[in-house]
Design a protein that fits this description.
This protein is mainly α. The chain is 81% helix and 0% strand.
């Protein structure tokens, strides 16, 4: 039963990500050519959005792999992942999960702002550069946290 619910959850996440990408494509295609920016500029803003979606997908995959490896190695019990009431697994097992949750919570405003800029067509290279800075910091943060979790560097 737990396996079925996990498959349904993964399918739902995939559908949501696919719907998000479809909305982005629709926004770019329906943005009038007479807007303040051209199609090339719209594509430039979509690239960091897609890069952040890719990071989220990679971390989700890592979460699944880490959890399965932990169960196979005996570092965590399947009961913990079923009910979250058994003994908590080692901290390294939960790092991808926490990173994944962070990637689902924090970037919501980033996605909304990017969609608004794409819809209105009012952005320039500064906003595109800032979008890339945000995405790069998310990649660095995820790498540091999942990889070696040095807190002062992660906070910086």
């Amino acid at each position: 039963m737990a396996s079925t619910s996990h498959c349904v959850l993964r399918l739902m996440v995939g559908v949501i990500l696919a719907a998000f990408v479809a909305v982005l494509v629709a926004v770019v295609r329906t943005t009038p050519a007479s807007a303040h920016v051209g199609q090339g500029a719209a594509a430039a803003l979509i690239q960091p959005v897609v890069a952040l979606v890719v990071l989220t997908a990679i971390v989700a995959l890592m979460m699944v792999v880490y959890r399965n490896v932990a169960i196979i190695r005996g570092a965590a019990s399947a009961r913990y992942f079923r009910t979250f009431t058994a003994d908590m697994p080692a901290e390294w097992v939960e790092r991808p999960t926490r990173t994944y949750m962070n990637l689902l919570e924090l970037p919501v405003l980033f996605y909304v702002v990017c969609l608004l800029m794409l819809t209105t067509g009012r952005f320039d290279s500064v906003q595109v550069s800032l979008a890339w800075v945000f995405v790069i910091t998310r990649y660095v943060h995820a790498f540091i946290y999942i990889g070696f979790n040095y807190v002062p560097l992660r906070f910086a």
